[in-house]
Amino acid sequence: MASLVDRYLSHITTACTADRSGAVADYIPELAQVDPEGYGLSLCMHDGQIYSRGDSTVEFTIQSISKPLSYAMALNRLGYVRVDEKIGVEPSGEAFNEISVDDRMRPKNPMINAGAIQTVSLLLPPVRDVSAQTVGHVFDELVTFYSACAGRRLALDSAVYGSEASTGSRNRAIAYMLDSFGVMDTDPEAALDLYYRQCSLRVTTDDLAVIGATLANGGANPRTGRQVIAQEVAQRVLSVMTTCGMYDGAGDWVTSVGLPAKSGVGGGILATLPGQLGIGIYSPRLDRHGNSVRGIDTCRHLSTDLGLHMFNLNRESRVTIRSIYDIGAFEVGEEWSGRERGYLSTCRDQVKVYELQGDLTFSGAESALRRIEADMDDYVVAIVDLSRIDVIDPVARTMMLSVKHTLDERGQLAMVVDPDGVLRASVERHREDQVVPDLVAPETLRGFDPTLPHVHSSMADAVIDAEAFQLERRAG
Fold first, then answer.
1. Is the pLDDT assigned to residue 316 strictly greater than 60?
2. Boundaries of each STAS domain copy (predicted)?
3. What are the tens digits of pLDDT across the range 143-154?
4. Whole-model pTM?
5. Are strands 381-392 and 351-360 parallel, antiparallel or unpaired?
6. Any catalytic annotation for residue 247?
7. Chain Cα centroid distance, residue 149
8. Distance (Å, rounded) from C-alpha 73 to C-alpha 320?
């Protein structure tokens, strides 16, 4: 059975693939040959769970999405002081391939080509004659680092590498300009070769989503558990991605989408919501800024529909499930009747309680919903206890209420314990919300009244309701 998140991603895929505007990058001959209709979408949650749709296993070249990774590698190795001497962190407001430096003759930031070429130059020995063998050795180290971020071994696309190297006149001009300004300490040709190689590594949207989740987790890969990037470095990289990652479209991106992101002319976009998830998208038709048209549209949908804007004022909610237990383990209060106590002792293995905590947003609701659905064969009644929840945002509310429909279809029961009325408050605040299309029946929200059966103010009331349901179920 498809999960709520799977159904939503299917809806996104259908909506966004209808747009056929934009064009593939044609200034690199190999990129001009890709299928313009390709589209893949992946989400990687903070615990490593991946949701994928479309061409999520199709490999494409990483291109400029490599820039934040090499920047992280340089910061890991050399530290802030050394890297900041050579590369600024200010938005350029210019196209990605502009010949752009600041008043100190540094590239303005590491996300434009000048900054990226300077970044890889810092990974090479500070000598004027760097051998091909040395470049190959540093590239092997770079691939190892990128692969640790993605959670699998990445490989070079030799055809794209050759195509980029033979048509990179503008990048060659940028490298020699930096050399003439005295800010490049190594062989410009070696730096260019390493840059072309990094841009030609093959990835999938699953890879990008895992890389995004690694950054979101403070540098820890959620699939492997390895701390690949120092936490303070991950913070710096995300900051620069936020202000510079989408080139001269960065301002509009931050205000309307609000996710640290990096695009590539191969059609990929990597985005991340710090503390919660990573996103990978592939669609090779590009807009005038060099960003994927469908990728931009997909990110707007995700941010708006799922409340993923990083300045959403709800607190971070990764750890949503406080406790899970059979109802028989519940601590009985003095006010409980003999009937309630008897039900607890006889039906302990048929009713499971899920205590949630914190502010409930998409990421936390997804984690809780996935666990409740995974356990469905282990209970007849599920009680979701919201006693320790402060705020529920609209998409999380829709996701949690969808549990009722899922269990209804199986002849089971889902109930909510909501003593402080946070569910009621959420509905009242967002009474006019539109349900995210194709997720759940509209009646789930429109006209929903939290005072109806199965939404209770105490666990004792929920136990009585559970008993009544069990009796009716047996009689039926």
1. no
2. 349-466
3. 999 999 999 999
4. 0.88
5. parallel
6. yes
7. 14
8. 33
